[in-house]
Specification:
516 residues; single chain; 9% strand; Alkaline Phosphatase, subunit A; 22 helices
C-alpha cells in the first residue's frame, strides 16, 4: 500500500502561516492577501512536484525534492540573515553572501537530485518522516493562530454627538470646495526641526502663510503612531473608549485598521455628494481603501506590505532586487502620487482626497534636490542629513502641488497639510533601553515625536478667529464641517496620548506634561 504524500503542500503553506503567526497584530488569516499568498504557494509546490516527478519518474522522489526545494526557497532570507557580510574578489566578479548561499543551496539540491535519481530503495519511511514533520509544523502554527483568531473582536463604535447640517441649495452644492487631506508621515514641527536637527524651516512656513494657510505652531499629534493618529483624525474622536471595548491586553490592531477603511469623514462627505479618492502608500492599513471611488497607488511586486515583507525572506527577493531595486520602486511611488495629486482639480465632482505619503519617513531615497539616493549613499550620511534631505525635497513638491491645487480648482479648495506623528529623534531611547514604555523617554524625545506640522487652507473663512495654535488633528474635520456644511460638532479637548507599557489600547494622557 502506497503512503499518502502530503508534505509538499505542508511545506508550501507553513511559511505563509509562520509569517502570519509573527504578524497577528497586523493581519488575519482570512485576509485576501494571506489566502492568495497561500494558494500561490500551493500552486508553486504542485508545479515543482510535476516537474521533479516527471524528471525523476517517481511521485515520491519528486515530492521529496519539491519539499527540500521549498524549504530552501522560503528560508533563504532567514539563513542569509545569519551569514556575516563579506566580499571575496573572484576574477571579474565578487563573491558575497547572496552568491555563496545560492550556489551552496543549488549544490545541495543537485546532490539530492543525483541521489534520488540513482536510488532504487523504498522511500516510504522518508515520505512518512516528511509528512510527520510537515504536520507537526502546521499544528504548532495553528495552536498560535487559531486562538488569536477566535479572540478577534469587532468594535462597537460610539456614535458622534447628534449634529445638524443645513440643507444645501443647488447653487451651494455647485460651490462646494474639493477637500484635500495630505499626510506627510513623520514631518516634524518647525521648532523641533530647529532644536533637534538644526534646520530653519521658516522659508516653507512663510510660503504656506503667504498662500493663505494657517500654520498651527503648537500642534501635536493626538497619538504618536500612524494607525492610532489617523484613526482618531478620520473618525473625529479620541480613542480612549477602545480600552473598554477591546480590553487593555487585546493584542490586535485589526479593529482600528477597519476604522481606517470605514471612517466618519468619508461617510459624511459621501452623503454631501463628494467623490472619494484615496492615495495609499505601502503600509497595509492605507495601501488601499475598499470604500474609495478610486484608489491611487504605485505597486511593484514588493509594493504591498504583507507580500513584500513575506517575499523578503524568500529566494525571490535578491533576484527581484537586482531587476527592480526597492529604493527605485519607492521613488517612483512618491513621484507618481505627487504627479497624480496635481491632476485632481480636473475631476468634475466635488472631491475628497485622502493622501498618505510615507515621506519624509524612511526609507531615505531622495536628497534635498530630489536626486536619487542609493542605499550605499544613505549609509554614508547621518540620520539627520538623510531626514532633512527628504524634508527639503518634500517642501518643494508641496509648494508645486499647493500652487496647482489653488490655481486650477474650479472652486477654492480646502487643504489640510498635516503629519500624523513626528520622527524618531536622534536621542530616542531604543527598545532595549525603554522596552515599549513611552514614559521612559526623556521629555525632549517625546516632544519631538508628537509635535507635528499642521497647516490649514480654508478659503472664505476668517482663519485667525477660527483657528488657534494648539489645534490637534482630532478637531480638523469637526471644524471644517461646521464651517462649510453648517454642522454643529463640538470641538474636543486637544489632548495628547501615549500608549501604556505592553498595551495597544490603554492610553496615558500627557497633554499637561507636553504643554507646560
Amino acid at each position: 500500500m502506497k503512503k499518502l504524500i502530503i508534505h509538499p503542500f505542508l511545506f508550501a503553506i507553513t511559511p505563509v502561516l509562520y509569517f502570519l503567526s509573527v504578524n497577528l497584530e497586523e493581519i488575519s488569516i482570512f485576509d485576501t492577501k494571506v489566502l492568495l499568498t497561500g494558494l500561490v504557494a500551493i500552486f508553486f509546490a504542485i508545479l515543482l512536484w510535476l516537474v521533479f516527478g516527471l524528471t525523476l519518474k517517481s511521485k515520491e522522489k519528486g515530492a521529496i525534492l519539491t519539499s527540500l526545494s521549498l524549504v530552501f526557497f522560503f528560508s533563504y532570507g532567514y539563513i542569509h540573515a545569519l551569514i556575516p557580510n563579506f566580499k571575496i574578489p573572484l576574477g571579474i566578479t565578487t563573491l558575497g553572501p547572496d552568491k555563496v548561499l545560492f550556489i551552496s543551496g543549488m549544490l545541495v539540491l543537485g546532490a539530492v537530485f543525483v541521489g534520488l535519481w540513482r536510488t532504487d530503495k523504498s522511500l516510504r519511511r522518508l515520505t512518512g518522516f516528511f509528512n510527520v514533520v510537515g504536520i507537526a509544523l502546521l499544528a504548532i502554527l495553528l495552536v498560535k493562530i487559531v486562538p488569536h483568531e477566535l479572540s478577534s473582536k469587532e468594535i462597537s463604535q460610539p456614535g458622534l454627538e447628534p449634529v445638524n447640517t443645513k440643507q444645501l441649495t443647488t447653487e451651494e452644492k455647485e460651490k462646494l470646495p474639493d477637500i484635500y487631506y495630505i499626510i506627510l508621515d513623520r514631518y516634524a514641527r518647525a521648532d523641533v526641526l530647529k532644536e533637534s536637527y538644526g534646520y530653519d524651516n521658516s522659508d516653507f512656513i512663510d510660503y504656506l502663510k503667504s498662500k493663505g494657510f494657517y500654520v498651527a505652531s503648537q500642534s501635536y499629534a493626538n497619538y504618536p503612531r500612524t494607525w492610532t493618529s489617523l484613526a482618531s483624525s478620520l473618525n473625529m474622536k479620541h480613542l480612549t473608549y477602545l480600552k473598554d471595548e477591546l480590553g487593555e491586553n487585546f493584542q490586535s490592531k485589526l479593529p482600528v485598521y477597519e476604522m481606517l477603511q470605514d471612517y466618519e469623514v468619508w461617510r459624511f462627505l459621501k452623503e454631501m455628494g463628494y467623490k472619494f479618492i484615496h492615495f495609499g502608500d505601502w503600509v497595509s492599513f492605507t495601501s488601499k481603501n475598499r470604500f474609495a471611488d478610486e484608489n491611487v497607488n504605485y505597486f511593484g511586486l514588493m509594493g504591498d506590505e504583507f507580500l513584500g515583507n513575506f517575499l523578503k525572506n524568500t529566494l525571490v527577493y535578491p533576484i527581484y532586487q537586482k531587476i527592480f531595486p526597492l529604493d527605485e520602486v519607492i521613488r517612483k511611488r512618491h513621484l507618481y502620487k505627487f504627479a497624480r495629486l496635481q491632476e485632481m482639480p480636473s475631476v468634475e465632482e466635488p472631491t475628497f482626497v485622502f493622501a498618505h505619503f510615507l515621506i519624509p519617513h524612511e526609507p531615505f531615497v531622495f536628497d534635498k534636490d530630489g536626486n536619487s539616493l542609493t542605499p550605499q549613499q544613505v549609509a554614508t550620511r547621518s540620520l539627520a542629513e538623510n531626514y532633512l534631505g527628504q524634508v527639503i525635497f518634500v517642501n518643494q513638491k508641496i509648494k508645486e502641488i499647493t500652487d496647482t491645487l489653488i490655481a486650477k480648482s474650479k472652486n477654492p479648495p480646502v487643504i489640510i497639510i498635516q503629519s500624523d506623528e513626528g520622527p524618531f529623534p536622534p536621542g530616542w531611547l531604543t527598545d532595549e533601553e525603554s522596552g515599549d514604555d513611552w514614559q521612559k523617554q526623556i521629555f525632549e524625545n517625546l516632544e519631538a515625536k508628537t509635535a507635528i506640522l499642521n497647516a490649514y487652507y480654508l478659503p472664505g473663512v476668517n482663519i485667525d478667529k477660527l483657528l488657534y495654535p494648539s489645534i490637534t488633528p482630532v478637531n480638523s474635520f469637526r471644524m471644517i464641517f461646521n464651517q462649510y456644511f453648517g454642522a454643529s460638532y463640538n470641538l474636543l479637548p486637544d489632548q495628547i496620548f501615549i500608549p501604556a507599557p505592553g498595551s495597544l489600547y490603554k492610553f496615558i494622557d500627557v497633554t499637561r506634561e507636553l504643554r507646560n
